[in-house]
Amino acid sequence: MGRMDGKTAIVTGAARGTGAAIARLFAEEGARVMLGDVRHDLGESVAADLGVSAVYQPLDVSRADDWDAAVGRAREIFGRIDVLVNNAALLHIGSIEETTPEDVERLFRVNQLGPFLGIRAVASAMRETGGGAIVNVASSDGVKGMNGVVAYASTKWALRGITKSAAMELARDRIRVNAVCPEAGNHEMSAPFLPPGIDSKRAAEFNAGQLLPAPEHYGLDDHVRDVARAVLFLASDDCPTATAADLVIDGGLTAGYIQPGLPGAEGGGSRPR
Question: Which of 125, 149, 151, 175 is 20 to 30 Å apart from 238, CA to CA?
Fold first, then answer.
């Protein structure tokens, strides 16, 4: 018996990367899945791989009418909506002075407005069937600060605020709202911003395991599956009282820093930084 048997989920940004991994895992665990994205060929291909349990839906998360169409179609095909995963996101890397107002607005519309519209669109459908689960894919950049990501980080900090406010407001309807905050995801997002010769996948793998020594042959795909498993946990009935939580998956990156020269900096299996 799968952990998502009988459940219907909408996953945004599901044509590739983390979103595709989440959709695949949900289907493996018995869910019927609507994959929303703006990359139509990729989205259709993933849905076809998943078979009759999946359907692709063109979905620009920044448009309220697209959300209305997606929710309407999901209810028509599947009869109900139990889970929403707000995964779709854009990245911009640049200094504050290099980042334009247009850059900030573009990220705001997808990374912040999109999840808000999604939550608003599915709330009544979940309420009618006795509740549900919403998982927002935030970022470790929404937990810590870092240079070069002022536009991106601001939207991910905001998404954590949306998560907590929505969790409080929708709790009476038995709708849980949580956030997952990974360090690395789809390396193709960062590739356009890296200098020539830098392997974006290797860079993402390094960032994902800064503190925790990864198992041999552990790579970015494994980290993405870790994120998908965390989303599955929060979306399933495994922990029905978990709401308003931030589940950080970053290899310990946001825990702090190792001070050279103090006890525990080296030896005993720990890795110096």
Answer: 125
> pLDDT tens-digit profile of 126-144?
999 999 999 999 999 999 9
What's the topology of domain 8-253?
A: Rossmann fold (3.40.50)
Per-domain boundaries in the chain: 8-253
**pLDDT band of 40, cuts 50, 70, 90:** very high
Residue 80 pLDDT exceeds 90: yes
* Choice between 10 and 196, residue whose per-residue pLDDT is larger: 10
User: 74: which 2 tokens?
Assistant: 């999901």
Q: How far apart are CA 47 and CA 50, in angstroms?
A: 5
CB 11 within 8 A of CB 23: yes
DSSP symbols for 74-99: HHHHHS---EEEE-------B-TTT-
Catalytic machinery residues:
152
Give the span between the Cα atoms of 95 and 137, in whole angstroms: 24
Q: What is the pLDDT of residue 185?
A: 59
Tell me what pLDDT residue 254 has: 87
Those residues whose C-beta lies under 8 Å from the C-beta of residue 12, and which sit 6 or more positions away, are 19, 36, 37, 59, 61, 85, 86, 87, 88, 114, 118
Beta bridge partners of 55: 34
